[in-house]
Amino acid sequence: MVYLMPSMDTEEWEMYPSPCFGAEIIEYTSISEDGDDQERDLAVSLDAILPDDLLEKVLSMLPVVSVIRSESVCKRWHDVVHVLRCTLNRMVPQKPWYFMFTCSDEVVSGFAYDPSLLKWYNFDFPCIEKSNWSTSSSAGLVCLMDGDNTNRVFVCNPITKDWKRLADAPGGRSADYSALAISASRKSHGYTVVVARCNQVPGEYYLWELSIILYDSETSEWITPFKEVLHRWRGGEECIICEGVLYYLVYSTGILVNEEHRHRVLIYDLTSRHNHTSLMSMAIPVPCSLTCGRLMNLREKLIMVGGIGKQDRAGIIKGIGIWQLCNKEWHEVSRMPHKFFQGFGEFDDVFASSGADDLIYIQSYGSPALLTFDMSQKLWKWSVKSPMMKRFPLQLFTGFSFVPRLDITS
User: Which range of residues forms the domain containing residue 308?
Assistant: First the structure.
């Protein structure tokens, strides 16, 4: 007898010998007192004598892919997995996955990379319709914003396919520049979504109006706690929430003597809500001349990955660095070794980069090659080769990371 179990890495079904995970039939014999008579006792199933709480404990230690597959073993296992999904913080923390797809106008489907099992899976991402959508992830949830209509914001769990559309965000359907961030609680499963919008003031080349729009899952409402007109600075598409603070990368629109000061990070305390202090007065300069800056929250620490520009040609990338913000000062964590930088081949001045926990992913838009950096081990490493192939010279790729979890819903 075999059980048919779904495989996430193919469209087919894989056949696994029954039963799985040690639930095998064991036959044993008893010996009579005189030692001459042996009789065969009734077969015993280890799965049958394993209490539900122990079975739940065993399954909770498995990679999330194995937990999903175990649902198909039998009704009892299906029920235990359902308990795991509904119970807070019972599963062992999973390493963040990376979802890679091509940049096109078609419905987005791609491949998800699992660094624990070193495997790529065919993966249909829920909600997302086009590659120009903004994304942000936290504690198993992924927030998505329509690139053509920034009023449309969704929150989903890509593993369980659970999703919902939030109430329309205020402030108009579009903005010159918009950034998205989500912060979810691992304990309460409540979450906060921030949309930062920046629009040029009509008729004023150097004036940009910045609006911070906040959504609270407990109230299911949007508020606009902060607005400011920036002079010679504009917002971009990169922000992140870390320990209740919003960090937002902004760009100079004026002529600067020192190219290293072309980017700054604004800091806004979300708990203060109505704060009338100018954010530009407390902005933090970036550590060097950047061609591209990516912000991420790794274990409640603000991390920036950036392309390092050449001294004489700031728009040309010569390397990639990783920095951590400590007490409003940037400390360099690592620089990408030259052999890895060369491995990307043709590297544009911008690239995709995201991460969670201790893992950072970096991907060139012009290639499906994926590089990882482990913060705890300070280790650079290529992922297993992606199944995505470059089919024509101008084909572009992108992606983002998320933590696979079964026990959080939108």
Answer: 97-402
